[in-house]
Amino acid sequence: MKLRVIARLIEIQKVLVRHGLDEFVRATHLYRPLRFLFLMSPWTWAVRRREAPRGQRLREALLELGPIFVKFGQALSTRRDLLPVDIADELAKLQDRVPPFDGRIARRIVELAYGRDVNDVFSSFDETPLAAASIAQVHAAQLRSEVPLDGAKTREVVVKVLRPGMREVITRDLEVLHALARFATRNWQDSRRLRPEEIVREYEKTILDELDLMREAANASQLRRNWENSTLLYVPAVHFDYCRAEVMVLERIRGVQISNMAKLREIGADIRKLAENGVEIFFTQVFKHNFFHADMHPGNIFVLVDNPASPKYAAVDFGIVGTLDPRDQYYLAENFLAVFDRDYRKVATLHLESGWVPEGSRVDEMESAIRTVCEPIFNKPLKEISFGTVLLRLFEISRRFNVEIQPQLILLQKTLLNVEGLGRDLYPDLDVFKIAGPVMRDWQREKLSARSVMEKARGQIPEILASLQSLAPLVRSAVQRAQDGRLRLAVEAPEIDALRAEIRRTNRRRDKVTVASVVLLGGIVWLALARGPFWAGWGMVGVGIAWLLVAIRR
Fold it and tell me: Residue 142: which CATH number?
C-alpha cells in the first residue's frame, strides 16, 4: 500500500477523532494500533469537540474530509427513514450549504477559461455565490444584450465554477478507495460476490465525469431535448458558447426548492400530484428515455408554481446521469413488471436468465424467498414501506443465493432510493406501484409493438448488409482452406479446459511412477549382481515386475 494512501487513512481517522466521532473510529477494523494511538494522543484529546451536537460534528467532519465524503453524506440525507432526525437534518445542509470559496477566485477562473474579461460576456456577475456544493459553486449573472438566448426564456443565468484543486483531492481519495477495495478482495470472503474493486471503478468513472463541466452541459442538453414541451419537468437551456471544462452557463431557474414544504403548502401547490409526477418522471427517464438524472437529492430539485394546481419540476446539476445496457434494461423492466403482478417465480427465473444468480440455484427456493420480502409491501402507502429495509432483506437473499452485485446498476439503485426519500417527504400516502405500473406497461407495449420492431429492424439493415459483404470473403477463404486440408477449428470450453488440466495431472503422476519404477529396477539389478548367481534369478523377476508397473502406467 502506498505511503500516500496510508497517510490519508491516518488523516481520516484523525479527523473523526478530532470531531469526537469515536464510535466511528472504534468501528473501524483497519489499522487498530493507529486508532488507539490517536485515542491516547494528548493533542487529540485537547482538541476534541464534544460540545457540539453529534449531527453537526458528523457534518463538519465530512466537510473537512472532502468531496467524496460530502457526497456520501448527501446520499444519506435523503433517507430520513433510516437516520435519526438530528443527523438527517444536519446532513441535509450538505445539499446546498457547503462553505463556498472566494468569489474573486471564481471570477478569475471564468476569465482564464474565456481568455477575456467577465464583463465582455456578462452585464453583471455576482461574486457572492448563490449556492455552493462539494465540487463546484454557482454565481448569478446576466448575459449581455447582444448574446443570443439559445432557447432560454430570460437573460438571467447561473455560472457554475469548478472548485480549484478538485482533481488532485479526488484522485487522492480514489487511491484510498482502490486500496481498501483491494484489501477487501484479499481478506473478505464475500468479496467475490460483492465485487468491491469493480464498484470502486464504477464510482471512479462517475466522480471523474463530474469534473468536466462540458460533459455536464451535454447531459443537460440531452435531458432538455428528452423533456421538451413536457408538463412534468423543465430543464434549463445551456449556453454552449460560454461552457468550458471548468465553467458552465445555464438559464437561471426561479422556483421553490423541493425541501421547502412550508412554502409549497403556503402557495397551495398540489403536493400529491407533485409526488406522483416524481415517480412517473423517474420511470420514464429509466425505461423510455434510458437517460436518467442520477443525483436527485433535494438541493438539485425545484418546483415551478406558476400554476399551483399543476406544479412542475425543474432540475439542476447534471453532473451525474445514468444509462443502462439494453440487456440490463430489459431484465430490470421485466423484474419490475413481474413484481407488480406478484409473479415471484418469473422474478426468480429472470435472475437466473440474466446471469445474476449462479447456475444450479433452485428456482422454487428463490421464488419463496422473494415472496417473503415483497408480499407484505403491496397495497400499503409509502409511509408504511421502507425500500431501504426491503433492499436490506433482498441483500440477505442475495447472500444466501450467492447473487453477484452488478456494479453497473448501483447508480440506478442509489437514484431509486433518492426518489423514494423525496416521495416520502412530499406525500407519505403515495402508492408507488399504482403510478409506476402504467408507465412500465406502456413501455412494454411500445417495445413489443409492430412499429417499434420494424423501426429497429430498419435501423439494423445497414449493419446486416455490411456484415453480409464482409462474410463472403471469409466463407470463400474457409472453403479454400478446407479443400487444401488446412482448416482448423479452435474450440474453447470450460469442460475442455478442465479435461486438459486433468490430463496434465495424470501425465505428471505417470511420469513420477515411471521414474520411481526405473529407480526400483536399477536398484534390483544392482543388488542382484552384487549378491551372486542365486540372486540374479530373483533380480530378473524384479525387473519383470518393475517393467510391468511401467507398462501399466503407460
Answer: 3.30.200.20
